[in-house]
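User: Here's a chain of 141 residues. Predict its fold as C-alpha cells.
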Amino acid sequence: MSNPQIENGYTRIANELLEAIIKHPFSRREYAVLLCVIRCTYGFNKKEDALSGWQIAEITGIDRSHVSKTINELVKNNVILRSDSSRFSHGHNVHFISINKHYKTWKTVAESATVTVAKKPPLPNQHRCQISLRQLLNWLQ
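Assistant: Prediction complete.
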C-alpha cells in the first residue's frame, strides 16, 4: 500500500500556473509530458533541464516516438520552451527544456493548426437521380 508523504519529496508549482494547466485543453499525452517536465524541473528546484525523449518515455509510459511528437507540439504551441543549449547524454545532444510560465501566450491545437481545404472528388458519373443517398452523404462529408 502506498503512503505518499511530502517529506519524501514534492513539486512546488504556483497555483496560478497549475490552474492555467488545468483549464488548457491539452491531450492526455500533452498532460503527461507537461507534468513530467514539471516534475523533472520544478521537482528538483530547477527552471530547466536537458530531458531526453527516452527519459520522458520511461517516466510517462508513452512510446518514444509519441513523446517526440508531443514535445514538438508543445514547443509549437509555446507551452514548452526548448533552449538552443544542450547537454551530451547517451550519445546524443539533448536540449534543455522548460515550461513557459507565460501561459497567456500558449496556443491551442486549433490556434496553431494550419487549415487546408480538401477538394471533394467529383460525384460518380451517374445521372443525379441514380446516385444513392449513401453516395451523396459520403460525398458531402
